[in-house]
Amino acid sequence: MVSVTIKKNDAGQRLDKFLQKAFPSLPQSMMYKAIRQKDIKLNRKRCEISTRLSEGDVLDIYLPDDALTPARAADDKPSFLRAGKALTVVYEDENILVADKPQGLLVHSDEQWQADTLIDRIQRYLFEKGEYDPNDEQSFAPALANRIDRNTAGLVIAAKNAASLRVLNEKIKTREIDKYYLCIVHGHIKPDSGTLKGYLEKNEAQSRVYIVDNREQGAKTILTKYNVLARRPGLSLLEVELLTGRTHQIRAHLASVGHPLLGDGKYGTNKQNKGAAQNRQVLCSYKLRFSFTTDSGVLNYLNGREVRIKNVDFATRFAQASDVKVVDRDALKCVLNG
C-alpha cells in the first residue's frame, strides 16, 4: 500500500489525471479497476475517476509496488540540467514568466528528443533560483501556456504553478490574451490594413498547412489582422494580430494572399528569399496583452497589463533604411519606442 498526500500543485486535478502523472507505470485498465473496487481510496472513502483533488487530501493505493513507480526517482539528475543557461526573461512574478525565445530554439522536445529546449531552460532557471525542485513535486512541472515555431522568435508564457497554468490555458482558449507579431513580407499588401479570413487545413504528413477559401471538412476558420507600418522596394513591414491561433497561421495566411514572409522557404519561394539574402523567416511575437473579461483567479492582477520586446532588430533596421516609406507613423513609433 502507498499513501500519497495531495500538495498545492496537485490540487484541482481529476483523480485519474493525477494518478497518470504521478505513477506513469500504472496501467489505465488497472487504475480504473482499482478505483471501481475501492483499492484506491480518498480520505479513507470511496472515490470516482472524476473526483477533483484538494490540497491535504490523502490517497491510499492498494496495488503492487511495481505498478506504482513514481515519475522520477529522488536521486535522478533532472534532464533539464543538460539545457543551456541562456534565457531572456522579459517579465516575471511569483506565478508566471514570459521569455523571449530566440530563433532556432524549440519550445518543447520533438520526436528526436532534444535536451535543450525553451521549457528545459526555464525549468533549469527556476531550479537554480530555488523556485522549483522536481523532488518536491508529484505531478507538476513548470510548463508553457503557448508555443511558437522553432524559427519564430519572441514571447512565450510559462506557468510556475498549477493554478496559474489552468488560468492561462483557459484564457488562451477563450482568446483573452492578445498576441501581436512583427514580420516582413514580400510585396506591397493592399489595403494598408485589414483582416484576412480563410480556412486552414493541416497536413501532418507534410508538416504544413493549406489555406482554402471555402470551409471543407476538417478545415478551421482563421482570422489574421494586419497593419502595414512601412514599405521598401518589394517588401513590407507588418504588425499582425492573431485573432485565431492555428499552426503556421501567419506564414500560411499571408502567403495565400501573395505575400509570403521574407525568408520563409516552406510557404514562400527560395528564389525570392535568395534575392533578399535571407534564409530564415522574419517573424517575431513581440507583444502580449492580458485582456481578461472573466474572473482570472490567481492572475487577476495581470488584467490590462502588456508585455513586449522593446527592440526587435529587423524592424529597427527596416525603419532606418534609406529607401523606407513610412505608412503608419504613429504605429511604427510605438513599435520602435515602446
Structure explained in plain terms:
It is built from 8 helices and 16 strands. It has helices spanning 15-22, 28-36, 118-129, 162-173, 249-256, 270-275, 313-320, 329-337; strands at 2-5, 40-42, 45-46, 58-61, 89-92, 96-101, 143-144, 153-159, 177-186, 193-203, 208-212, 220-232, 235-242, 283-290, 306-308, 325-326. Strands 5, 6, 7, 8, 9, 10, 11, 12, 13, 14, 15 and 16 form a 12-stranded mixed β-sheet that branches. Strands 1-4-2-3 form a 4-stranded antiparallel β-sheet. The chain is elongated and about 75 Å long. It starts with a strand and ends with a helix. The model has no long low-confidence stretch (mean pLDDT 93).
- Summed up, the helix count is 8
What oligomeric state do the depicted chains represent?
Answer: single chain
Largest sheet at a glance?
Answer: 12 strands, mixed
Low-confidence segments, ≥5 residues, pLDDT <50?
Answer: none
Report mean pLDDT, rounded to a whole number: 93
Structural class: alpha+beta
Q: Separation of termini?
A: 58 Å
Give the helix level as a range of percent. 10-25%
Note the beta-strand portion. 25-35%
Give the radius of gyration. 23 Å
Overall form: elongated
Would you list the SSEs in sequence order as H and E? Answer: EHHEEEEEHEEHEEEEEHHEEHEH
Q: What is the number of E strands?
A: 16
How are the secondary structure elements laid out?
Layout: E1 2-5, H1 15-22, H2 28-36, E2 40-42, E3 45-46, E4 58-61, E5 89-92, E6 96-101, H3 118-129, E7 143-144, E8 153-159, H4 162-173, E9 177-186, E10 193-203, E11 208-212, E12 220-232, E13 235-242, H5 249-256, H6 270-275, E14 283-290, E15 306-308, H7 313-320, E16 325-326, H8 329-337
Parallel strand pairs: 8-14
Antiparallel strand pairs: 1-4, 2-3, 2-4, 5-6, 6-8, 7-8, 9-13, 9-14, 10-11, 10-12, 12-13, 12-16, 14-15
